[in-house]
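Our consortium's second objective concerns turning raw sequence data into structural hypotheses that experimental partners can test. To show how far this objective has progressed, the report includes one record in full. It was chosen at random from the queue rather than selected for favorable results. The single chain below, 147 residues long, was entered without modification.
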Amino acid sequence: MDGNSNKVAEQNTFFDATPAPVIVNFNDLWETFKRIYSKNRSVYKKVFKNNVFKKLEILYHTNEKNVNFDIKLWVLILSTYLYAYKNANAQSRKRLIDSLPALYLGRISCFVLETSSMNKNQVEKKIINDLKYFKNEKEKLRTLWIK
């Protein structure tokens, strides 16, 4: 956000309101992630280097309570996908796009689990920290696309 956006947000009492609770079923999200992930395993194995693919495999096989799919892994996945997409033919690009939602569901599932016991301020701080990390990595993502 630029300086003007921050001033608007500070003046607008809407942002101080407590949002209505959102009910999310972690188990449903996680099972959907696992179901779609299993259908796209061959894509992931081809796209990712061993270290990322191994992390994803651990996530896929882990007990739900031990899930760890943090922002660093998510940004690494996005940057790898961006590079693969840029260098792929039309058919491969379609497979990449079709396989990405499972990974997104995995990330969202982990975020839900991680923040489920947090209060509003803790969740907001988590989101801001994740955003800062993503913004710091954004130039690397841009460079990958431009190359």
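The partners drew two points from this record. The two ends are 27 Å apart (CA to CA). DSSP finds seven helices and no strands in the chain. Both points have been shared with the crystallography group to help prioritize constructs.
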